[in-house]
Amino acid sequence: MPTRNDYLNYIRAAYAREHGRLDVEIARWQEQFRASAALNALFGYSPPRWPLHMAAVAAFLYEQTGDTAYADEAADLLLRFPGWTALLPAEAAAARPEYADGVPPLDTTFDPLIYGAACARIRPAVDDATYARLADIAADSLRPIWRFPEWGGHNRALLRAASLAVCAQAFPEHADAAAWTSMADELAEESWGRWSIEDAVMYQSHWLRALVQYAEARRQSAALADFVQPRLTLRAASQLMSPLGILPDIGDSHWQVYGRWEWLACLEWGAATYRDPLMKWAAARLWETPSDAAPDLYGAQALLLAWRWCDDGVQPAVPAGPAHDALDDLVAKKVVFRTGWDARATYACLNYRDEGSYGRVARDYLRTTLAVSAEKMHHGHADEGSFSLLVHDGTVLLSESGYRESPPDGMYRADYYHSRLIWRPGSLPAGADGTALRDRGHYRPVTTERLYLTRLGDTEIARVRVTDPAAGVQWDRSVFFLPDLPCWVVIDAALALRDAERTFGLLWWTTDVLARGPAWVDTHVASVQGWQNATDAALRIYTPDVPNQPMTHTEARERRAFQEASLLSTLLSGQHRPGSYVNFVSVLWPHAYALAEGAAAPSVEVVPYEPAGRGLAVRLTLQGTSRLLAAANDLGAGLLAEDVRPRYTFEQGKATYGPLGTD
Fold it and tell me: Strands of 395-398's sheet, edge to edge?
């Protein structure tokens, strides 16, 4: 378990290691800035972050030691920021309405929050004239907010609110301080006592960290602790923690790059505020995640909050058994399958979050102002029903699609780049593979719900539904998890809500295909965005044919998550008439990477229902045991037309599959 002293040691080590690199880092930033004219035109002026982080750490060390050399260094770095704005060409600045009063020295969204806290720390060591100059830099950086406020329950709005509140607290005598406070409260309103509208692990930590800092600056920490939203957001993150000690990078997130330290700080705040041992455990798992990286300034300035919020008196603990819901089936909408909480456990996360039925006006505001047609609002992917992460024996076996690679929109958000079932109008030409399903990637609004989550015998069963009203398709994904094997059986059922010619594609993404057999492939994810994966396990993916459905199984190479990937597709085209179903079957079996010759492997048999089309069953035989796992297509098949109670009979819904009969 990390302690405050561990965080302090990291901060000191990062400062000692990187203290002499200021000139190198500034030169690097200038070179990158000049080479990124297109991005500068798109996103505006982007100041250097390294000097800001160094100043924040130096200010903290002054507070710890009283050594004014740290305060002098911090002030010197912070006062340099206005001079760097000259690198933005005048014509580029003139093209941005929010720069009408000058180019902001700091990034309006992310930086004043760090800047204001650093200035407040060094105030005792800085003369009034210098502090007034620092206050003016804050004012110049915050001024564009009035032209581009970014309101709503999401990170960009709340980061602005926290920046305004923290700077008002740091510079209470500035002429604009009252306006900063007023605007801070206005922008925070959509998040205060309400849920974030985002579905992206990286951005949820931005939102939550800003929410806590806003509350502190406005002296509302006690009120914040009374709200359920921050507590349950942190509880969900704790339940989502994977055996690797990382959170699944759902939505617009980069693999292990951003958010780790911010989540750690937020979890420390939650553990201390709610005396929650699971949050303390999750913070410890993030801290203990193996990394070859030496202490750096980004991590150090993020850990300033972890140090401040950490309470060494809270002891970590995990639940006695698995927690299948990550929070609930109304907001978070994540199902977690796990064999345990240890580092070698088997784990999978199924995301079925849609845009949601709350925050509508804020979501529509974002939809009409930002170039984000490929995402659900905000920062979420078209990943409803997708396996976001699968881990076995310390090895990643399924992973997410990554953030955008080509701004402003980016295609990796689209349904095509996720391990799920997708559908397109019309039929595919002969010989087409799964890449033919790639399109412009525009998000198709859907609604989702969890139909059930239960355990029968040694099997955990979840069923989620995705309804696409525009396309006229309703898709149910039934997932059977057998933790003792471990193995997943996935039965997909797509219902036609109206008549159309359609193509369905069952997609599984990996990087390497190790071996092939009848209706199966052995797969492994070699790396994720440069991170080298372990080779302790591989994943066998079975996609057997379903009787009376002419399916095509294809493999293709495609770019995904900033690297080359393998797309495994099961394709089905044809006329899809109202009330009819198409079914797909997948079996996911993790096993040792070097599978011993003659080692037992699953036998998979598809067993159709009678009457035909009523549902599907899979007979899975492994380790000398056979299981028959079934999912009915129409859960209302047993309902009677007459308005009587009860409105169902066994005979009306009766179906058989293999030796069993049920309604």
Answer: 334-338, 347-351, 386-392, 395-398
Type of residue at 187: L
How many angstroms separate the Cα of 328 from the Cα of each of 133, 204, 237, 348, 480?
49, 16, 12, 17, 19
Residues in the chain: 663
C-alpha–C-alpha distance, residues 386 and 235, integer Å: 22
CA separation for the pair 290, 257 (Å, rounded): 13
Q: Residue range 84-94: average pLDDT?
A: 90
What does the DSSP assignment read for 555-580?
A: EEEEEETTEEEEEEEEEEEEEE-TT-
The packing angle between helices 297-309 and 201-217, to 10°, is: 50
Nearest partner of 554 among 540, 572, 527, 539, judged by Cα: 572
- Looking at the chain, the whole-number percentage of residues with pLDDT higher than 70 is 99
pLDDT over 90 at 472, yes or no: yes
266-300: pLDDT as tens digits: 999 999 999 999 999 999 999 998 887 899 999 99
Buried b (16+ CB within 10 A) or exposed e, 563-593: eebbbbbbbbbeebeeeebbbbbbbbbbbeb
**What are the tokens at 97?**
């309405």
Q: In this structure, what are the phi and psi dihedrals at residue 531, rounded to the nearest 5 degrees?
A: -80, 125
Q: Within 10 Å of residue 182's Cβ, how many Cβ atoms? A: 12
Sign of CA dihedral 269, 273, 276, 277: positive
* 378 cis-preceded (ω within 30 degrees of 0): yes
SS3 375: coil
d(CA 164, CA 186): 11
3-state SS track over 394-411: CEEEECCCCCCCCCCCCC
Integer-rounded Cα Rg, in Å, for the chain is 27
Do residues 287 and 248 touch, judged by C-beta distance below 8 A? no
Burial of 639 (0-12, 13-18, 19+ CB in 10 A): middle
Cis? peptide before 105, omega within 30° of 0: no
Q: Kindly state the tokens that stand for 578.
A: 């109202």
Q: Which of 609, 566, 570 is nearest to 586 (CA)?
A: 570
pLDDT tens digits for range 476-525: 999 999 999 999 999 999 999 999 999 999 999 999 999 999 999 999 99
Reported as a pLDDT band with limits 50, 70 and 90, residue 599 is confident
Q: Any idea which residue has 């309400």 for tokens?
A: 194
Tell me the H-state helices in 429-566: none
Please, what is the end-to-end C-alpha distance for the chain in angstroms?
A: 51
Q: Alpha carbon 118 to chain centroid distance?
A: 30
Across-strand partners of 450?
Answer: 464
Q: For residue 564, which of 556, 553, 572, 574 has the smallest C-alpha distance? A: 556
Residue 437 DSSP label: G
Q: CB-based burial of residue 430 (10 Å sphere; 0-12 exposed, 13-18 middle, 19+ buried)?
A: exposed
pTM of the model: 0.95
Q: Which value, to the nearest 10 degrees, does the dihedral of the CA atoms of residues 305, 309, 312, 317 take?
A: -100
Give the integer Cα–Cα distance in Å for 184 and 602: 58
Q: Which of 489, 473, 487 is nearest to 606 (CA)?
A: 489
Task: Report the alpha-carbon distance of residue 309 to residue 234 in Å, rounded.
Answer: 14
